[in-house]
Write a structure and sequence with these properties.
Elements lengths: L13 H27 L9 H29 L16 H25 L2 H7 L4 H12 L6 H24 L6 H24 L4 H25 L12 H39 L1 H13 L6 H39 L1
């Protein structure tokens, strides 16, 4: 017998890869909320503005994704596939699709989400940003894709609405006292709607996850980076992206660009590949609770009763809706298999 080499490693099983992808996805999504709040909150002395952070996010992701997109477009042309790229070949999708998904998933989402953290705490973002995403996705899918909303799923969405009202409704009441938290809450809701629109459009056009991620980054780069550069250097807007410490710029580019866009995009796709869309949604339902807890522990934010209740309702709504969807999927699969056996 030969002794096993100490340098011999067995390949990771699909289960191990799926679990690792799920852990990374949840950690990045949770960290996104905490870091964005810590970076954008004026009271914490952040150097960069929300638009500066969006600039770092887009540039950081572009360093990886634009060359990747150019390579995919070159490979398509080499295979005789024409008309499937745009933006001088850095987007591997046609211009019309690139503009649609890029506006909602690449540009608008970053603009409204980062600005929301200026006004509202991370606990509000936990409920209203990832927490309300299933609500807007279901409504837009029903409107655009004509998906059917069952009674069980409607009950789950109703719980999400109640949770959102507990959080955002009370902040709107506080607006009469001069508070500004409601502005952040509305921006978070707009961010959830923007990402939901991107998700539904990606389903409508049957987009590959990698190509869609590259396309939204390419559009955001072309539409925002040159214009913002001119505005900042010309003194038209008070951005500090060209005068802030290099270490801060690199941190935001690496985390917001490489982490939030590139890495979590890949791990989320890998998670869906192993666990399926229904179980994956149940896993990401951990994000609102974890980020709200992280805001209390790391940012010192108070967790008021309405936030805690809203968080519970939103999480229950997500889980309830997902289980209802899983039940429908299982019945569909069983009916299909029964029909296959009958035909056999």
């Amino acid at each position: 017998m030969h002794a096993a080499s100490p340098f011999h490693f067995t390949r990771l099983s699909p289960r191990a890869i799926g679990i690792a992808a799920a852990v990374v996805t949840v950690l990045v999504w949770t960290s996104f909320i905490l870091i964005a709040r810590a970076s954008s909150d004026p009271a914490r002395g952040g150097t960069l503005s929300p638009f500066d952070i969006a600039f770092c996010r887009i540039v950081g992701a572009s360093l990886i994704l634009l060359p990747w997109g150019a390579w995919l477009s070159y490979r398509d042309r080499a295979r005789g596939i024409v008309g499937q790229s745009s933006l001088l070949g850095v987007s591997p999708l046609p211009w019309r699709v690139t503009a649609q998904v890029g506006f909602f998933g690449g540009l608008l989402y970053a603009m409204v989400a980062y600005n929301g953290f200026v006004f509202a705490p991370a606990a509000h973002a936990s409920v209203l940003l990832p927490g309300s995403l299933p609500l807007w996705t279901a409504l837009l899918a029903a409107l655009i894709l004509h998906d059917r909303i069952t009674l069980a799923r409607a009950l789950g969405l109703g719980l999400i609405v109640l949770g959102d009202l507990l959080v955002g409704g009370l902040s709107l009441i506080g607006a009469f006292d001069g508070g500004e938290v409601w502005k952040g809450d509305l921006l978070f809701m707009a961010g959830a709607m923007s990402w939901a629109t991107y998700s539904v459009l990606a389903r409508r056009h049957h987009l590959d996850a990698v190509r869609a991620t590259i396309a939204i980054t390419a559009f955001a780069f072309v539409a925002f980076v040159p214009l913002y550069t001119v505005l900042v250097l010309g003194g038209f807007v008070p951005g500090r992206v060209f005068s802030a410490p290099l270490s801060e710029l690199l941190f935001q580019a690496v985390f917001q660009g490489w982490g939030s866009v590139v890495i979590s995009g890949i791990t989320f796709t890998q998670m869906i590949r192993y666990f399926g869309p229904v179980r994956s949604t149940m896993i990401t339902a951990l994000v609102p609770g974890l980020s709200a807890l992280g805001a209390v522990l790391f940012l010192g934010e108070p967790l008021y009763w309405n936030l805690a209740a809203g968080l519970v309702l939103v999480t229950l709504g997500i889980l309830f809706g997902v289980r209802a969807a899983a039940s429908i999927d299982n019945k569909t699969i069983a009916a299909h298999e029964g029909g296959t056996r009958a035909r056999g």
